[in-house]
Hints:
By secondary structure, the protein is α/β, with parallel strands linked by helices. It has a single domain (4-188), classed as Rossmann fold (3-Layer(aba) Sandwich). It has six helices and seven strands. Strands 3-2-4-5-1-6-7 form a seven-stranded mixed β-sheet, with helices on both faces. Helix 3 runs parallel beside helix 5, helix 4 crosses helix 6 (155-174) and helix 5 (111-134) packs parallel to helix 6. The longest helix is centred in the middle third of the chain and has 24 residues, at 111-134. The mean pLDDT is 89. It is an enzyme of class 2 (transferase). Pathway: Cofactor biosynthesis; adenosylcobalamin biosynthesis; adenosylcobalamin from cob(II)yrinate a,c-diamide: step 6/7; Cofactor biosynthesis; adenosylcobalamin biosynthesis; adenosylcobalamin from cob(II)yrinate a,c-diamide: step 5/7. The active site is at residue 54. This is Adenosylcobinamide kinase.
Amino acid sequence: xxxxxLVTGGISSGKSAFAEDLxxxxxQDKSCxxxxxxxxxxxxxxxREKVRLHQQARQDKNWSTLEAYKNLxxxxxxxxxxxxxxLLDCLTMMVSNIIFEDDMDFDGLDQDKCRLKEDLVLNEIRxxxxxxxxxxxxxxxxxxxxxxxxxxxxxLSRFYTQLVGRSNQYIASQSDQVYMxxxxxxxxxx
Length: 190
């Protein structure tokens, strides 16, 4: 039976490496391969370098890569997926890409538009989890724990922090295991 594992922590805390180690162990135990779902969009040189370093860290693993942040539920449902485990890195970038794909004025954003964006994001996540469960796949998700630093000073930051927090809470509620990574040390919290 497939399991869902959430790996959360601060930015550059070692989450991705920890998640990749988990996936390597699971794939060896189950003799299956992995599909790495990369959700990041490259928008500057710093991000390009970060993506390159992530790719370099995985180059010996012989995993397939899917670059997507939207319609993942449909992709999983319609794909053959002979791969027994999925690694999504990361949920936070998925949320960012979905909320920023439209050219919106977030400072003037009203509650109705915020709710529509929130519904869009949460439905994407729910559909993805449902498809993973329906296919009985293992899934490891990486996310950022961004709400630990206090209340944000502007509307967009508060909206984003709350939406990532709600997304993380949903995934944690659906997860069989949850790990918090601090300074590259993973601690199981569920």
